[in-house]
Amino acid sequence: MEFFFRVQLLIPLISVLALFPLSESNNIQFCDATNIYGDSGCDFMSSVSSKILIKGGTVVNAHHKEVADVYIEDGTIVAVQPNIKVSDDIKVIDATGKFVMPGGIDPHTHLAMEFMGSETIDDFFSGQAAALAGGTTMHIDFVIPVDGSLSAGYEAYVEKAKRSCMDYGFHMAITKWNETVSEEMEIMVKEKGINSFKFFLAYKGSFMVNDELLMEGLKKCKSLGALAMVHAENGDAVFEGQKRMIELGITGPEGHALSRPPVLEGEATARAIRLASFVNTPLYVVHVMSIDAMEEIARARKSGQRVVGEPVVSGLLLNDSVLWDPDFQFAARYVMSPPIRAAGHGTALQAALAAGVLQLVGTDHCTFNSTQKALGIGDFRKIPNGVNGMEERMHLVWNTMVASGQISVTEYVRITSTECARIFNIYPRKGAILVGSDADIIILNPNSSFKISSKSHHYRTDTNVYEGWTGKGKVETTIAGGRVVWENDELKVIPGAGKYIEMPPFSYLFDGIDKADAKYLSSLRAPVERSTT
Length: 533
What we know:
Elements (H helix, E strand, L loop, with lengths): L3 E3 L6 H7 L10 E3 L18 E10 L4 E9 L2 E6 L9 E4 L4 E4 L1 E6 L4 E2 L2 E2 L4 H10 L2 E8 L6 H11 L6 E8 L4 H13 L4 E5 L10 H14 L2 E5 L3 H13 L5 H7 L2 H18 L3 E3 L5 H12 L4 E3 L3 H5 L10 H5 L12 H11 L14 H4 L19 H10 L6 H15 L17 E11 L18 E11 L2 E5 L2 E2 L21 H11 L10
Parallel strand pairs: 3-6, 3-7, 8-11, 11-12, 12-13, 13-14, 14-15, 15-16
Antiparallel strand pairs: 1-2, 3-4, 4-5, 7-17, 9-10, 17-18, 18-19, 19-20
Helix pairs in contact: 4-5, 5-8, 6-7, 8-9
């Protein structure tokens, strides 16, 4: 089925009708997402003004907020100060009474990913377009190696990302170990702009790595100044749990949660943390879903270890009661790994996020439609794992964490944008509204409301795990690369407009690692000289 996106009508209607089909569902103008670059009628968007003044809003950074104007030229912020004067031909956006903030950066997505016998329904264009409508202006996707080859995986993802409409970066997964992989890791860091590598402790028989491989990977990451990331579940125990559920006749979506309880996430998190401590290298734990995992991270951080904890929106807000719904199609849409946990885990993760125990919020956006999810009817092990989140993240985090009073607006900027930019070493180019920063900006109206629906979202999938959710705080304008791409509830996106953002190694997380190593060596009091006579 062809998939199309709404665009603002900037050329005569008769010309538009010749270029683009109309959506049968809502008769709203769409831009053909299957077209490539200059072959697309989307090119008319390039005529949009490259000079923009955002006037009178409260400019919010992670460290400070002030009422000021923001002036943009050619994709870059060139001035942030009160009462900027411009000529009449400059586009002016009135942000009085609203918050002007850095666009969101989603650290954890899976677009066009081949997984569990299927491929995620959102590609780089559709997923990114949805993200822009929700206020996210950059994401970092996970490259999956091809038959263990990092270079082949990288090239495959470069091809997948050609129609990107917003900026993006890459993490790289490591699924096996040999000298070639070690050499390719070095190439990825030094030549391809990748500064993070992910190790799956789950998915036995496919992505899972053992402790020996993890140790080798941690050592290599440290030497390259690259951040090691882990999906922390005990894959061997999960495999046993799955067999147990099938033997008990539990084959529906509830079996997914029952087969991989929080204790297995806690165990793997603790193991990865201890091995990272042994190597003395920073560690990033993706999609922290349970109290068990969060407490291991809190303990490590209290001891001074460099551990980053990333909760995802689904883990913060949902609970596993949905997996027991008698409607398979409804329940299956919530299947992800680690699974959504019982009530209580989410509120504990929110508190940990507010307290700084967890540092930033991702989505693990990995969408499959109802037909794909139906592959697991009769066997929960075959349900493609993943939920949506790229479009909803900024709204739901604001409503849950800021509107409720759990965090401040500056802390919101930190957990949705700035901390990600700092961790992956692209701050202040990204994650800030400062002179010289990229003009990736959102304007959020705290008094406006939002409502989430699969009928109005911008994904390709036919379901939404936040169906019917409402809240306060709406992103009314998104500016990406200096272009207004979301305004008046209309998307204006260009396939190919997104840029690949190279991320250099040795972020702030590596500061002082060499001194700690030297201190360790001096503490050994070894080798001891002994007489051989």
